[in-house]
Amino acid sequence: MAHGPAKGISRWLFTTNHKDIGTMYLWFSFAMFILGGAFAMIIRAELFQPGMQLVEPAFFNQMTTLHGLVMVFGAIMPSFVGLANWLIPMMIGAPDMALPRMNNWSFWILPPAFLLLASTLFMEGGAPAFGWTFYAPLSTTYAAPSVTFFIFAIHILGLSSIMGSINIIATVMNMRAPGMTYMKMPLFVWTWLITAFLLVAVMPVLAGAVTMMLMDVHFGTSFFSAAGGGDPVLFQHIFWFFGHPEVYIIILPAFGVVSQIIPAFSRKPLFGYDSMVYATAAIAFLSFIVWAHHMYTVGMPVAGELFFMYATMLIAVPTGVKVFNWITTMWRGALSFETPMLFCIGFLVLFTIGGFTGLMLSIAPADFQYHDSYFVVAHFHYVMVAGAVFSMTAAVYYWLPKWTGKMYNETMGKTHFWISFIGFNVTFFPQHFVGLAGMPRRIPDYALQFADFNMMSSVGAFIYGASQILFLYNVIATIVAGKPVSDDKVWDGAEGLEWTVATPAPYHTFETPPTLDPAHAHS
Amino acid sequence: MLGSLSSTLGLMRKKGAWATGAVLTTAASIAQAAGDAAERSSVNMPVGVTDVGSSIYSLHMLIFWICVVIGVGVFGVMFYSIYYHRKSRGVVPAQFHESTKVEIAWTVVPFLILIGMAVPATSTLLEIYDFEDAEMDILVTGYQWKWKYEYLQEDGENVSFFSNLATSQSEIYNSADKNDNYLLEVDEPIVIPVNTKVRFLVTANDVIHAFWVPELAVKKDAIPGFINETWTLAKEEGIYRGQCAELCGKDHGFMPIVVKVVSEAEYAEWLADKQADAAQIRELMAQTFTMDELMARGKDVYQKNCLACHGAGGEGGVGTAIAGSAIVQGEVGGHLEVGVNGVPGSAMQAFGGILNDVDLAAVITYQRNAFGNNMGDMVQPIDVFNYKKG
Amino acid sequence: MLRLSANPAVDTATKLVVVAVAMFAFVFVVMVPLYNVLCDALGINGKTSGQAYTAVQAGVDENREVTIQFVATNNAGMPWEFRPEKTMMTVNPGASNDTVFLARNPLPQAMVAQAIPSVSPSRAAEYFHKTECFCFNQQPLDGRSSAEMPLQFIIDRELPKDISTITLSYTLFDVTEMAQGAVAAR
After folding, report:
1. Three-class SS state of C146
2. pLDDT at position A521, please?
3. What CATH homologous superfamily does A22-224+233-499 map to?
């Protein structure tokens, strides 16, 4: 190596190395995952039994709000950005990200943003308590003073996401090794490229929405207040114009991860690579024309309801193609079930169930019963947790040996999977039932007929939460004292340029572009 | 996971909606756990008592079963592969990675299935959107955190009242046993006649709320400044309970909706009573009462509205003590302030929007002269009226 | 293709910054006005036009009667008494109709109110033409005084045949503070 990392704290503060920045993103997002998880534990503890036991309703609302915000913007999104930082340059044969200094900035503005957000908990009037969807006027006229800090936090992390995405697009478009054409890129790179375009398109829309809130709160405008000629429903349209693509921003990189790992442990190329790319693009396109399915009950004209219902139902087609492709990839492969594969299979089963409930929710007339009930909560946790978080966990186990040069404890990994899988289902499966039976979401206390399933749900949540400690322990134990791995190709079925560099991955890789092996067109 | 799916499947059968097949033991145990909470299903959407509700229910079940069939197929193939295509069985992996025919098939077939779903979905949606020919109209207004119902009358003498959570603080804070309708009970339900198309005009006073009664297949957002509409036509008498469905602040979970569907005759009687009550209150508002009258009425009001939190002897509980309270023994204005506007951030509600001026005057007078608070002064309805108007 | 920098990565990034800024602007200059246009055209939220209707209807349709319901609501913190003089009217499409809403300011100080109209069913909104309405402007009222606020409207002859009842709701907002600034009224 020509030169290694700087020493001490300045290595991390001033680093422009994609691997260092990726590492920081991953640890930061895990810290946020634990914080958001702690909020979830408070929620589930309060909901363990009917009646108010631990917290007051106002604080409960702050918990649901912060749980959502921290998990979406602090845990899931940064974790995939971290993964992109680590892997995209290695996967396309680039020495680093295209804009390394901006890369440093896009990470380092994140922690202050979340400090700002967390500090609202200690402010007069408490933290934001209007849900992660922050519908006006609850989030404007009726919000605690901390809303201003919330708005700034959203601005900063929006900026961070936009900078991160610009960097990813610039890297993928300009830094590919000779011969790495677009249709030879690993699917993870493809899904991230499309995600990054979505981010550049919709994060500014979110910024616009919160800017309007700021103006309504402090400068006397009436974007979202009927009194001055505005409309609270306009907020929902703008929010979900951002919010629906945001859902795919979260899940598309997860699709990418699964598309890398399933072929590796099936020892068989990914089935339907081209159709995977097209399906991803189709999902991204559709995400812009379905936002109002979150708003079936606001009183839209019937023609609007029908349009958004049909468009939403259509998403089932490309999503179905993806699931069929993954399963066909496994078909007649030679499967083995190491921890990453287990998490991918868990993803496949649970995400598909989340997809089914998504299809049910797309049906506008039925949504009049499902809307804002626990059925929705169950649905999006199947997609977000079993979708995004499971695949992220799979990714960590899969690439950890390459990153650290050490092998994690397989038994502990498998145990982590099974406890997670059981805990997750015990938590969220019963929520379908209480939702259908009429339990609204975001309530701190509930009627007696919901008691049994809520207790079950809370027990599951504690199990799922506890299983993450095992995960943390396993990762730290691997880094500190894992069994060294020396093969470049840690997994016998793994494909892709990242497996051609030394293990652990050196600080600088592909300073001279690799020569592509034409036999392996893509992985 | 398949186990979970099939246990749902078993549950549906047990509910009698679907007739064939064996009930899994897991399903049976869940059903038993669920069975003790009244007749309302704890595992599935209620069919409800309206035609729209049954259309939605059938649609829901249709799509559920389509998903189950697809799920069994997809997961079946996957688990077959997981079992038979294991590396540990020594299989040699195939290397195929595309098939245009197969890929076209699994794009086109789901598309056709979706069309099959869209047809009944569209017709049900159009049914929901048919607002015409309603026989009566009720204006529903969401407040933080209660509902106001106003029956629009042709003669302009609208009947209107607030509907508050009736569950006591002691039940919520676990110092008393919870009753069967915990959190789903109100002081005054909406009363509507059976077999009558009722239109709800839904709006809000402050933030967005949502009016949801599952068994009447009604859910509509209540948006401040704008009016939305929805309707129901209940075919069975009974009491149907729902809740606010849109996060509206601190007590979002504590503003239930109770709809009492009664016979036409019973409804007419109820309406006449309400109109008579309203006329009586209007009359009383102009009157001046004696101390004894205020104390007697005040005691009643206290027992219904205050006792739960402030105790039978004014000794306090969830709420602060009334006996010897600085507010009660202070200026009348300060006492009115708390009574009318409540104490933000506490369980003390703003009774100005809940009690009429006569009851408010009476209960404040009562508090000032009971439990050893011998203030000796009186509050008349006109004082409350003037206080509210600033 | 236009190149903004010799460094291809900087070139790509610069273009993307332009896209991001454009999307931010898009919210303000496209989404908000577009939403308002769509609301007026489709009657989303039952919004009616904020301008007086000036076109002439082709005579009165004597063969058809439509029931108009009037509803008045106060928004939070609005202490005025506010109600329609008549809660119901039966009108013929094409005919001009008059009614008033009664308002009283019970407080000692002067206040300014803004009434926001909303029509239900919302698809009737585009057929509900107001030739004169107190909702077109903010309404000031001195302390402890009353006013009759006039409304003149025509129901379009093209009103879909299946609509027989229209509800017009006004929500009254306190805009006293806002009235000090210049705010577009509807």
Report:
1. strand
2. 52
3. Cytochrome c oxidase-like, subunit I domain (1.20.210.10)
- Same domain for C57 and C19? no
Per residue in A403-451, pLDDT (tens digit) is 999 999 999 999 999 999 999 999 999 999 999 999 999 999 999 999 9
What are the φ/ψ torsions at residue A160 (nearest 5 degrees)? -60, -45
Using the Cβ of A130 and the Cβ atoms of chain B, whether some distance falls under 8 Å is answered with yes
Q: Are residues C75 and C148 in the same domain?
A: yes
Model pLDDT, residue C181: 56
Q: What DSSP state is assigned to residue A178?
A: T
Mean pLDDT of chain B: 85
Closest Cα in chain C, distance from residue B305 (Å): 23
Task: Report the residue from C12, C44, C75 with minimal CB separation from A169.
Answer: C12
Measured between beta carbons, which residues in chain C are less than 8 angstroms from residue B155?
87
Is residue A67 part of the annotated active site? The answer reads yes
* pLDDT (tens digit per residue) in B242-289: 999 999 999 999 999 999 999 999 999 999 999 888 888 888 887 888
Q: Among A2-6, A331-335, B317-321, which range has the highest average pLDDT? A: A331-335
pLDDT value of position A229: 84
Interface check for C106 against chain B (CB to CB < 8 A): the answer is: yes
Q: Are A10 and A500 in contact (CB under 8 A)?
A: no
- Residues 145 through 164 of chain B touching chain C, CB cutoff 8 Å: 152-156, 158
Give chain A's mean pLDDT. Answer: 94
pTM value? 0.90
Give the Å distances, CA to CA, from C123 to A151, A236, A301, A303. Answer: 36, 21, 7, 10
Domain that holds residue C30: 1-42
- Active-site entry in A184, A268, A322, A381: A322
CATH architecture of structural domain B286-388: Orthogonal Bundle (1.10)
Q: Which of residues 143-162 of C touch B (CB under 8 A)?
A: 162
**Does the beta-carbon distance from C175 to A228 stay under 8 Å?**
yes
Mutant choice from C36, C87, C105, C170 vs B, greatest count of B C-beta within 10 A:
C87
Give ∠ CA A97-A102-A105 in degrees, rounded to 5: 125
Please give the tally of structural domains in chain C: 2
Cα C127–chain centre separation:
13
**Which chain A residue has the Cα nearest residue B68?**
A356
Backbone angles phi, psi at B20, to 5 degrees: -100, 165
**Segment B281-310 mean pLDDT:** 84
**Chain C contacts in chain A segment 80-99 (CB below 8 A):** 98-99
Q: Please indicate whether, in this complex, the C-beta atoms of B106 and A425 are within 8 angstroms of each other.
A: no
Per cent of chain A over pLDDT 70 is: 98
- Which whole-number Å values give the CA distances from A463 to A64, A387, A459, B220, B300, in the listed order? 19, 18, 6, 37, 50
The reply to whether C109 and C167 lie within a common domain is yes
Domain B136-280 class, CATH top level: mainly beta
To the nearest whole Å, the CA of B178 is away from the closest chain C CA by: 33
